[in-house]
Design brief:
seven-stranded antiparallel β-sheet, 29% helix, 30% strand
């Protein structure tokens, strides 16, 4: 009886096609390659014209237009979504910089970007550009790999709503239709029939 249950379980696992991918988090190259190569439809954060997935351990703090502020393990992540570059399909021309601690151009199925790590006053500045978005974070050395992992998840899951972005870039979208009205100006007596009605 036990062997039948095990056999049914194995058949179900094979037929459903479940796969487990273990990410080696000791290598930045491996983190970026594995996470960016996976196609994900997950999202738990929605903004005006975009949505993305905030992984476990990262907390959404605030949003200001196309700038989101996130927090994880004592570090703030600043996410900038470049909707204009997305709309006009601007191509990034990045040259790897050997003076940086880490510098790499990323090209994954037509999505271009780069990852750069440099030292600033004992901390490490991570600049990760991918999928028409950029994440910057200033972290201690022991948090570099975790920050790259979280940033990879966030940037790879960004989906833009083309119609909303097109509408928001329209010149007339942000113009207010306002009418000047002054409550202190005296109305012409002929304009108001209410007082005449009261008198009758």
């Amino acid at each position: 009886m036990k062997s039948k249950i095990v056999l049914i379980g194995l058949i179900a696992l094979i037929l459903t096609g479940c796969t487990i991918v273990r990410i080696d988090t000791t290598s930045i190259d491996n983190i970026v390659n594995v996470v960016l190569s996976k196609e994900s439809t997950l999202y738990n954060r929605v903004g005006r014209g975009y949505k993305y997935y905030v992984p476990r351990g990262v907390t959404y703090i605030d949003s200001n237009g196309s700038n989101d502020k996130l927090y994880s393990n004592g570090a703030y992540y600043y996410l900038y979504l470049d909707e204009i570059s997305y709309y006009y399909k601007k191509v990034i021309d990045y040259k790897e910089d050997k003076t940086k601690i880490y510098s790499r151009k990323i090209d994954n199925d037509g999505k271009i970007g780069y990852l750069e790590i440099s030292e600033k006053n004992g901390l490490y500045l991570i600049e990760f550009v991918y999928n028409y978005a950029k994440i910057e974070a200033l972290v201690p050395k022991q948090e570099i790999n975790n920050t790259v992992l979280n940033s990879s998840y966030i940037l790879s899951t960004i989906k833009y709503n083309h119609n909303i972005i097109k509408l928001s870039l329209d010149d007339n979208f942000l113009k207010n239709k306002e009418e000047k009205y002054n409550v202190f100006t005296q109305k012409n007596k002929d304009e108001s029939s209410f007082l005449r009605y009261e008198e009758e």
